[in-house]
Amino acid sequence: MVVITYCSIFEAMLFRDVIGQKEIIGRLLRTVLDSRISHAQMLLGPEGTGNFPLALAYARFINCENRVRLDEEIYGFGWDSCGECPSCKKMYNLSHPDLHFIFPLPAELRKMKKDKKANELIYEPWRALIRETHGYFGLDDLHNTYNLKGKQTLISAEDCTEIIEKVSYHAYEGGYKIVIIYMPEKLFYSAAPKILKTLEEPPGKTLFLLIAQHQEMILNTILSRTQIIQVPRLNDKDIRQALISKGHSHEEGALAASVLAQGSYSTALRYARDSQWLEDNLKQFTTLTRLSFELHKKYELEKTQQLIQWVAFMSQQGREYQKNFLAYTLRMFREAVLASYQTTEINKMNTAEQEFMDRFFKVINHANILSITREVENALYSVERNGNANLIFMDLCFFLNRELRKGYRAVT
Ligand SMILES: [Zn+2]
Fold it and tell me: Which residues are in the CB-under-5-Å shell of ion ligand 1?
């Protein structure tokens, strides 16, 4: 079993452990303090923005028996769970009898839900995933946890029946019964009717929290019955601080990872944990720009062959590798523009990148920068949509050849 191990210390799942998202925390707190908790809410946001940790902290706060005041100046919000009461402790262990989870599974695991081994095979890995990622995980991580390798997963009609049954009883502990549905996008269409009535009129003191990423993939009948809370992408600074304070990265690594993560803490973690990627990306970027620039009449055959080899190499890599590389390339071209304006105070490059850029930035200027960044964005878009990688990278090389030469002529 492959589980991403981010940190051995499981954080307390409190609002103050959530990265950024102060505004949403404030809104969630107010619903509890004003006793107007909507019975079906959807936390909608891209992977790694924190919709799952927000849901866990919210669930915990709702049932906490001894809520505490916080210094709003320091935390940005005024309340949190105590972390100590019996309810908080059970929530922390993910063993609270009134906290239920539905998440997508493949058919063979779903069948085992009533089996004696269900706890060991289904729920323990799920709890481990939440503990080890602190709730910052995506569908890929879930699939890795169960070693699924491309198998189809979904939330079935039986899953819905099971939950409806569970919430029909009184809460064991007298507080709220809370059902967290992870990825309602995966709700099988024939399963939806089962849960609609309960979503609309749940038994008393029942809360459904839906954790979703793609609104367009969710059935309208579900959307119309939930209150949607948009969870925005995190800012670079919050990601950077979290990576450093949680001990995942040093200053330089955190800086690069946060810029490339595009507002997703789980993506930033993957970058921060793999120090090799930064070196490798710079190596590929240097090769791409050098070969593209040098492709010139005089050396044509030899240089063209090297370029074709490089394109073949890139095409053989996985989509994720190609996407990461293009995101990196985009960042480096943007850095080159900043370097050309000598705005060193907002420069975010490390030493090796800076050395390369000192030699390189002269050929990146007003004559070509806009068209280059647009072309790299297009390449990234095409790779994301499963375009032919060989053609995409070859086009990019020839485009860069033309544009870098243009930039060179503009300054000589
Ligand atoms: Zn408590």
Answer: 64, 81-82, 85, 88
